[in-house]
Amino acid sequence: VKSFRSKNLGYVYSASHGFFYDQGKGDVRHMLKYAGDELTHVLFADTYNQTKDCRYILNPPWLNQRGAADVTIHQHTAMGEGEVDFQGIFETLREMDFANRQLKPDAPKVGGDNIACVSYFGFPEKMDKQAPEAREILERELLGK
User: Fold this and answer.
1) Under DSSP, is residue 44 helix (H, G, I), strand (E, B) or coil?
2) Rounded distance, CA 119 to CA 102, Å?
3) How far apart are CA 35 and CA 2, in angstroms?
4) Residues whose CB is less than 8 angstroms from the CB of residue 7 and which lie 6 or more positions away in sequence, other chains included
5) Mean of the pLDDT values across residues 76-83?
6) What is the maximum span of the chain, computed from C-alpha positions, in angstroms?
7) Torsion over CA of 123, 125, 129 and 134, rounded to 10 degrees?
């Protein structure tokens, strides 16, 4: 992202992809700080660290018939249901003043508030409860409401 040096391009950080980004370390603070001012969008969802044994079950077995690299499985579950360090994410985003920054304010074709959104999938029957809870978490942690 930093090599493009474009005011029209920002960085999207997906919390549920963090273990993929750094080969299982889950060092969210480092990743967010590295993105720095280029960070314009954060997607919130939990997951398990896929580098640890027995985290995912492929079903049916033929999904992975050609080898481990053919299928990558991960979840986007509710915050608190996996292993993502949300305390680290929220503390770092507050330190960065993410919620109050503008998305590329001097760019000619883009601009506006930075974006924080929830990216849950897999359990639509839980959304009536999980979606409002997620909004409350984001408002509390990022906006102090």
Assistant:
1) strand
2) 22
3) 8
4) 104, 106, 107, 108, 110
5) 94
6) 51
7) 30
Q: Which residues pair with 13 in a beta bridge?
A: 42
What CATH number has the domain spanning 2-143? 3.20.20.150
Average pLDDT of the chain is 84
- Indicate the domain borders of the chain: 2-143
The C-alpha atoms of residue 34 and residue 49 are separated, in whole angstroms, by 21
Residue 97: both structure tokens together: 């003043």
CA 30, 48, 38, 139 dihedral sign is negative
Contact 1, 31 (CB under 8 A): no
Nearest to 39 by CA among 109, 105, 115: 115
Question: Tell me: the pLDDT tens digits for 20-74?
Answer: 888 889 999 999 999 998 899 999 999 988 888 776 655 555 555 555 555 556 7
Q: Are 40 and 115 spatial neighbours (Cβ–Cβ below 8 Å)? A: yes
Establish how many alpha carbons lie within 13 A of residue 116's alpha carbon, considering only the half-sphere containing its beta carbon.
21
Structure tokens at 92: 């770092």
DSSP-based three-state secondary structure for 117: strand
